[in-house]
Amino acid sequence: MKKVNLGCGDKYSQDWVNLDFNSENPDVIPHNLLNSLPFANEEVDVIYNSHFLEHFSLEEAKKILTECYRVLKKGRIIRIVVPDLESVCREYLYILNNIDKPENKEKYKWIVIELLDQMVRTQKWGLMNVYWKEVVKKDNKLIIDYVKDRLGVDIRNYYVDPPSPKPSNYLNFTKIKRQLFNGYIRVIKNLFPTDYRKDIVDQTMLGEKHKWMYDKYSLPSLLQTVGFSKIQILNEKTSKITNFKDDYLDINSDGTPYRKSSIYCEAYK
Ligand SMILES: C[S@@+](CC[C@H](N)C(=O)[O-])C[C@H]1O[C@@H](n2cnc3c(N)ncnc32)[C@H](O)[C@@H]1O
């Protein structure tokens, strides 16, 4: 049974074929998923991806899903998890409509970052990192609990240090390739006049930004356009994939959702 996890990051099961961009993890196949999937037509039994599709433009997402359709066997399932545009918009409007309450003035700062920052940031980790650090430093329990409630993330464990080059003990092919690529980008960037440089080549990592967002209407519509059918919105604990919960991809070991405020969508080829 061939089960494929696209854009797995660090959240994967060894029972699956895991693919991600440029991974150094031996359990993950490095592959740029904007290229064709490395599988034959109708070779794959299940496809899963979580918090992956929103990193592509609508056109790119359609291309990726068309590839998924090609490699999936007839009658088999694709499961897609993405951040829920509706959830963040509803929360933003609720906070805005109740902005007179002092706690909502504080929550407003976060919900705007959640809604916009990952789409517009020009620096790695963007404003999210700056704000989370400030919140942790001040031990602002209101926002620590609020982000936990929204995303399921305890920012006291998760907030991110400024990017610093990791000490490198050994060189392998992937590292050399990445260093050559980064050097190439630096050279190209410096060819632009200084005033335009920041806008043309921004500082976010490839695949870090959100380029689109989905809701319970637009994701099923996109899947339908590509040819998928019997499309259902489920939740983190429900799936038509046999024994899916045993892989702990959408839940933590204590049964709580791994990615809160998400849409869980399944469809059949
Ligand atoms: C937000 S992370 C989600 C990781 C994991 N699925 C999870 O839910 O924790 C998005 C992942 O998509 C990967 N990704 C983005 N663009 C990609 C591309 N063009 N090819 C392969 N992987 C890509 C990133 O490297 C990253 O690991």
UniProtKB/TrEMBL annotation:
Annotated ranges, domain Methyltransferase type: 34-76
Alphabetized InterPro entries for the sequence: Methyltransf_11, SAM-dependent_MTases_sf
A Pfam family hit: Methyltransf_11
Domain of life: Bacteria
A GO molecular-function descriptor: S-adenosylmethionine-dependent methyltransferase activity
Protein name according to UniProt: Similar to Uncharacterized protein conserved in bacteria
Record organism: Crocosphaera watsonii WH 8501
